Structure formats: C-alpha cells, structure tokens
What does this fold into?
Amino acid sequence: MIKSQIYVGIACVTCFILGIMAGYLPGYYSVQSQDDGLTQVSTIDAILNGLYDGVITYGDLKDYGDFGIGTFEGLDGEMVAVNGDFYQIKADGVAYPVDDDMTAPFACVLFFDADCELPVWEGTNYTQFQDYLEGSIKEQNIFHAVKMEGTFGYVKTRSVPGQEKPYPPLVEVTANQPTFEFHDIKGTIVGFYCPDYVEGLNVPGYHLHFITEDRTAGGHILEFDINDAELSVDYTSELHIILPNTEEFNSLDLTKSKKEELEEAEK
Ligand SMILES: [Zn+2]
It folds into this structure.
C-alpha cells in the first residue's frame, strides 16, 4: 500500500515562488511523503526528571530520519545526525560513530529535505540568528529543522557525562557540564525550532547541536558566530512521538511546569 499523508501547505516568503512552481500554494493542503514528519522520542520533561533509559535503538530510529539531535542511555553525550551519519559527542568533546544497538532516551529526527534557503550574514551570533529566523519565518506554529553548513568564527558547545542509577535530574548534570570552544571552524549546525506550545513535550524555540566538518568534535550549542554559512530550513506540520511505555514513565508526575529548569539546563 502506498502510504500518504495530508499536510498543511508550507511556505515562507522566500519559498513562495518555489512553492507555486512545485505545485502547491501556502495555506492549501498538499500531499507529501510520510517521511516528511518529525519524530520525537520521549518528552523533554521526562529527561528533566532523570529518565535516561533508552527508549529505541538507533538502528530503529534511523527508519524515522537521517538528520537530528538527541542523547544516549544514561545521558551519555550529545547526538548529532547529518546526511544519515549518527555521532555521539561524549563528555571529552570527541565525536564517535553511533552503533545501531545503542539507544536513545530522547531524540528528534526527520528526513531532511530543505523547503527553503535563507541568507545569513557574517558576524551573526546565536541570539541574533534566533531573532532573524523568528522575524523571517511565518510558520511559527509548526516545526522546522535547520541545517547550517559553513565556517564559524566561534562555536561554544557542551556535552554531558554518562550517569549511573539512580539518575540525577538534568539540571544537576548540566551544572557541571564540560564546555568546548572552537575558533574559525568548519562544520554543520543541526537542530529544530519548536513552537512555544510544546512546553513540557520538547524545547520551545531553537535547540541546536554542532559537528565539525571532519566529524571529530561538536556538542550541544551554547553560542556561535557565523563567518560564512548556508542555511536551509525544512518545515513540517506533522509530529510523531514515541513514548516510553514503562512503569517509571507512567508513574511520573508530569503536571508541574519545568520551564525554569529547562532554561537552566539548555542554555
Ligand atoms: Zn541538546
């Protein structure tokens, strides 16, 4: 059976003409491949509560995307996936290839297929980048993946050391996170924008990871400064969530807002 999904038509100003050429108009429905949806593993509040057990193997997760970010069983580092290659950036800052039998307690992946390319300028930092994209993109209530490839004057990342049970909450782990600084570095920034209403489920706003061009280092992005880069955006109006159906997850109190803890842990 050929599977298909109805998607809300997508567009940004830059993509409008391309959209017409491609045969769809913004605001109308268009049939796209099921592969265009974003797949998320677990919820960010489960991670904030210290649920670091793997939910799905990376071998299986690859069926849902070739691009994305995440972490590993026991919170053992930051995951970056680009062009179908998955990497684990451990607490030593080094990128290791991910084995298919490793597992993800949290991840976001999709099959990256750019809808739009946007110009970026030298000297733009992370805060300016977020303001710029939020100002340029009309699709504030759907999800988008961002891929930015090029040279960066500065990138600051962090990773997290693997934890033993009983797992501490994420804020306790990130309080002692190792950070890494790169200067005049070539690489790729990989990540997602999620609308504000995802609070509790995912990270509202931007969540970006970095991998160097030689695929040896990277991490969760804390700051960057663009030299010369190309930015592509992939919109999606479909979200698929794989939840851990465990006693631990089902007995968790997820009614309280963890907004402040998330700010502290991610920034
Ligand atoms: Zn991250």
